[in-house]
Design brief:
The structure holds two protein chains of two kinds. By secondary structure, chain A is an alpha+beta fold. Chain A folds into two domains: 4-200, Bira Bifunctional Protein, Domain 2 (BirA Bifunctional Protein, domain 2), CATH 3.30.930; 206-291, Up-down Bundle (Methane Monooxygenase Hydroxylase, Chain G, domain 1), CATH 1.20.58.180. Chain A has helices at 4-17, 37-40, 89-99, 162-170, 186-204, 207-228, 239-258, 264-291; strands spanning 21-22, 49-58, 74-83, 109-113, 116-118, 123-132, 135-146, 149-150, 156-161, 179-181, 184-185. In chain A, the strands form two sheets. In chain A, strands 1, 2, 3, 4, 5, 6, 7, 8 and 9 form a nine-stranded mixed β-sheet that branches. In chain A, strands 10-11 form a two-stranded antiparallel ribbon. The termini of chain A are far apart. Chain B folds into five domains: 2-55 and 107-192; 59-102, no CATH class; 199-312, no CATH class; 316-519, Hypothetical protein af1432; 528-638. Chain B is 45% helix and 15% strand. Chain B is flat and about 90 Å long. The chains are: A alpha+beta, B alpha+beta. The A-B interface holds A 68-70, 84-85, 87, 90-91, 94, 104-113, 115, 126, 128, 132-135, 142, 144, 150-154, 168, 171, 173, 260, 263-264, 267-268 and B 12-13, 15-16, 42, 126, 128-131, 133-134, 141-142, 144, 172-174, 177, 228-229, 259, 261, 277, 279-281, 284, 286, 288-289, 291-293, 295-299, 302-303, 306, 324-327, 330, 334.
Chain lengths: 293, 639
């Protein structure tokens, strides 16, 4: 039986052999692999790109103090971006399942419609959830729009939910029982994080301070966006740092949400604030790419 | 020559619910007069036909030339330009003309030109682009291969960079990915490669296997699975009987909606600890798929049990204030506000204390973990929780059923309390949305207001509830309701169009009254004399219309009535209090005689006026049940 890390190694190796850059996780909090700039920004514009990376993804509201066998505050995704989409993309994807030891002839595979949309990122795509013996193991999306831009080269995004996939491979009922490395369970590595983060997110995060921080990061991002047009040496302009402010805002929004601190009326407004920043930064990035091409 | 045609558009998995609509469009494909036979799996849309010609026949076309006045030289030039010998030119009136032979075209060329645009012209609920950016071709999912054959010839074309050919692909896992086919061998080759092309056959296979495994067929699920598989095979799995402690509604929803499993019953209405899953593969000899599905279901059931236990920690009644955090609709505020309005409305509609209590609690389950996870179970979960928390039966049942009817086929709530809460909830939604301009138009109805209104109509009629329509709705919303009322009586109850029109034309007080009048009308319609009578009423209506007679309270001067048929008709209708429709038919001989002998439009304006008044008076009197002039008589249908 492969360990958790064995499976990750194999997936990375598989996609590296198919021309992907193997990136390391992005070091700013994100809610999904899609939000890392390796996806969100790289899918824009006419330049081909292929990348795969594991991305720890934080969803404060999904935390369950480590008590629920299938729900996590922070889960790990293996994210693959193939831009443009190769014609045999699904065969390549199925090959990756074989590569981690799934004999597809012995399983039931279905691609069931599941389109994806992220209002905060001004992004949506068309795709499926990949069902293996009744379990959703992957989200497959053809991006159509990102940061409010129609995409020129439609990328395929393949997102493996690693814990779920490996629990399936190892035949365990709880993600905490996954063998991460010989002698170490998932719970040994991550339980404390799940418990403590749940306590912080649900009980102790200082709401007033989170709101202030949200305002601060927003202001920083806005300031940068406004400074861009007058900045002459475009290639030096800090678009990527501006995008990091967006990610900070998004994470703070999720934290406030988990704290129950965002009222119904505020909610739509805050989503729009974050979206404006995301779309604004995407526009700078596209412009900068063009200006420096 | 008579040729077979085959088109297979190979795609990535098409959403199951869109496939029948696409097939209906392909059914209309223009194949040079041949009739298309269509079928599909999630990965292929297929059109077969036989009896296509190899080419269209040659034909002659008359081409008009220059005027005769322009001379013979011009005529010669005209012939040359058309590529026809000068001797062929003839004179027709003032112009030269000639017959030109238009050679027929090869069918393969015509199809190569017409098929690609027909494929890309298919209408889908949502399309995507995948190559060539936003200006590239759009389809439901990427097209990956195309088979296009006429006889043994490939119909050559290209869509989205994919060239047509004679190579198909089998089942993703079990089949070959490169299978040369001919029109005759196509379906058999697919079968060898684990694709059952016929959706009819797939449906039948699922139905037979599922029934053999003792599961109950669910028609919607059957349809979904038919179009989500290329080679369906059913297997049975088990779960721990301990989960049967959870409500059957929850277990069934998890199985049916989340996992697409059929539930198994040990006795009618009693779940057994098994499920039937339909795989997209040929078998599961080692039980791997079975175990996988069991594991997933176990996790789902565990979640459900966890939600149930967590939710019991806060009673429904203590969740009321939490509804202030749940938006009903941006312009219409929160569910707390909605709840307050619904409670008020239930009071206005005369709901008892149980109904009011149910109204107060009916939306509280929106804050539970169970409903957040299984949204389809809203209402049902509230009802189950209310029961578990000791609310009286009329209260929990009303909560449980207050979203009903969810469709025209669904039944209305069974208790008076449930009916009144369901009515108030839907009416509040409708009034609210209409008041802020959220009115359905065309196919746009994001708040499902048609369904809500249809639900109100169904509850009012089938619950025999006596509320005046004008008391419930007004203005634009009333108009909207009139459409729904018509729709309900025609499409759902099967009353004839003209009968519904005739009854509604004279106004709507309560829907119970509408139904009663429809029943009277339907009963009297087949009786002798009725149609002739309806024709006479139509004639009266026309006479009054032509005369612009619009008095609402016409007064008849009896002294001015002529002896004979006119007086007799007057007496006949005055004597009869026609609350019951069958008596109306007795009027027929009087009316016949009247129209045979009496002229309405006479020169004497006073007499004319009096005659119009009498007709108007009579019409009004007999139009309390229905406007007979709306009845389509057999004579009219023949026209």
């Amino acid at each position: 039986m492969d360990t958790y890390q064995d499976t990750i190694f194999k997936l990375k190796r598989y996609w590296a052999e198919r021309g992907c850059i193997i990136q390391e996780p992005y070091d700013v909090e994100v809610g999904a692999g899609t939000m890392a700039p390796e996806t969100f920004l790289r899918v824009l514009g006419p330049k081909p790109y292929r990348v795969a990376y594991v991305q720890p993804s934080r969803r404060p509201a999904d935390g369950r103090y480590g008590e629920n066998p299938n729900r996590l505050y922070k889960h790990q995704q293996l994210q693959v971006i193939l831009k443009p989409t190769p014609n045999d993309v699904i065969d390549q994807y199925l090959g990756s399942l074989e590569a981690i030891g799934i004999d597809l002839a012995k399983h039931d595979l279905k691609l069931e419609e599941d389109n994806w949309e992220s209002p905060t990122l001004g992004a949506w795509g068309i795709g499926w959830q990949v069902m293996l013996d009744g379990l959703e193991v992957t989200q497959f999306t053809y991006f159509q729009q990102c940061g409010g831009f129609d995409l020129e080269l439609v990328p395929a995004e393949i997102t493996y939910g690693l814990e779920r996939l490996v629990a399936f491979l190892q035949g365990v009922d709880s993600v905490f029982d996954i063998t991460w490395a010989p002698g170490f369970k998932y719970s040994d590595v991550r339980f404390a994080d799940e418990l403590q983060s749940s306590v912080y997110n649900f009980e102790m995060a200082n709401v007033d301070r989170l709101w202030r921080l949200l305002g601060e990061y927003e202001a920083e991002c806005k300031g940068l966006i406004e400074a861009y047009s007058k900045y002459t040496e475009k290639h030096r302009f800090p678009v990527l740092p501006a995008y990091e402010q967006v990610l900070k805002c998004s994470n703070l929004f999720n934290l406030l949400d988990a704290r129950g601190a965002i009222s119904v009326t505020e909610r739509v407004g805050v989503i729009k604030r974050v979206r404006d920043l995301a779309v604004g930064t995407a526009r700078l990035w596209a412009d900068q790419q063009e200006a420096t091409a | 020559m008579s040729l077979d045609f085959l088109l297979e558009v190979g795609t990535e998995e098409i959403p199951h619910w869109m496939i029948p609509g696409a097939l209906a469009q392909l059914q209309k494909l223009d194949l040079l007069g041949a009739t298309p036979r269509v079928d599909a799996t999630p990965r292929r849309l297929v059109v077969h036909a036989s009896g296509l010609p190899d080419r269209t026949p040659d034909r002659e076309e008359t081409v008009k030339g220059p005027p005769v006045s322009s001379g013979e030289k011009a005529a010669a030039g005209f012939a040359r330009k058309q590529g026809v010998d000068t001797s062929e030119v003839r004179v027709n009136g003032n112009y030269y003309e000639l017959n030109k032979r238009i050679p027929g075209q090869l069918a393969v060329d015509l199809l190569a030109a017409s098929v690609p645009s027909a494929i890309l012209g298919l209408q889908w609920p949502k399309t995507m682009y995948w190559t060539g950016g936003k200006t590239g071709p759009r389809f439901i999912r990427p097209i990956r291969w195309i088979v296009a054959l006429l006889g043994d010839q490939i119909i050559p074309f290209e869509i989205a960079g994919v060239k047509s050919g004679n190579i198909t692909r089998g089942h993703r896992i079990l089949g070959s990915s490169s299978i040369p086919v001919a029109t005759a061998s196509y379906e058999a080759e697919l079968r060898k490669n684990f694709v059952i092309l016929s959706s009819h056959e797939r449906r039948h296979k699922i139905e037979t296997e599922v029934s053999k495994l003792d599961a109950k067929i669910d028609a919607d699920l059957l349809e979904t699975l038919t179009f989500i598989t290329e080679y369906p095979t059913a297997i049975r799995g088990d779960f721990d009987p301990a989960y049967l402690e959870l409500p059957a509604e929850v277990l069934t929803t998890v199985m049916r909606h989340h996992q697409k499993y059929f539930a198994v019953e040990s006795a009618p209405g009693k779940l057994a600890p098994h499920f039937v899953a339909v795989m997209n593969t040929s078998g599961d000899p080692e039980g791997i798929v079975k175990r996988g599905n069991e594991r997933v279901l176990r996790a789902r059931f565990n979640d459900a049990r966890f939600f149930w236990n967590v939710d019991q920690q806060k009673k429904l009644v203590d969740r009321g204030d939490d509804l202030a955090h749940v938006t009903f609709q941006a312009k219409l505020g929160t569910y707390l506000e909605k709840t307050n309005r619904v409670v008020q409305l239930v009071k206005e509609l005369g709901g008892n204390a149980h109904a009011q209590r149910a109204a107060e609690l009916c939306k509280c389950d929106l804050t539970t973990e169970m409903v957040k996870e299984f949204t389809d179970l809203q209402g049902i979960v509230g009802g189950l929780y209310a029961k578990a928390q000791g609310e009286p039966e009329p209260v929990w049942r009303a909560i449980y059923q207050h979203y009903q009817p969810l469709s025209m086929e669904d039944s209305i709530p069974t208790t008076p309390e449930g009916q009144i809460v369901a009515l108030a909830d839907k009416l509040d939604t409708l009034r609210g949305c209409f008041s802020v301009g959220l009115i359905p138009s065309g196919s746009k109805d994001p708040f499902a207001l048609r369904r809500a209104a249809q639900g109100v109509v169904k509850i009012l009629v089938e619950g025999r509830l006596v509320y005046y329509l004008d008391q419930l709705v007004s203005g634009e919303l009333r108009e909207f309701f009139m459409e729904r009322i018509q729709h309900y009586f025609r499409e759902v109850r099967g009353y004839k169009y003209d009968e519904v029109n005739a009854v509604l034309k004279v106004g709507v007080s309560t829907l119970k009254d509408v139904e009663d009048r429809l029943n009277l009308l339907a009963k009297v319609r087949p009786t002798p004399n009725f149609e002739a009578l309806a024709a006479s009423f139509k004639r009266i209506n026309n006479i009054l219309k032509q005369a612009d007679f619009a008095e609402t309270h016409p007064v008849v001067d009896v002294g001015m009535l002529e002896q004979g048929p006119e007086q007799e008709l007057h007496e006949a209708y005055e004597q009869r209090e026609f609350g019951s429709l069958d008596k109306v038919a007795e009027l027929r001989p009087y009316l016949d005689r009247y129209f045979d002998t009496v002229m309405v439009n006479v020169a004497d304006q006073n007499v004319r006026r009096n005659r119009l008044s009498m007709l108007g008076h009579m019409l009004r009197k007999f139009s309390t049940i229905a406007d007979f002039s709306e009845i389509v008589t057999s004579g009219e249908q023949k026209q």
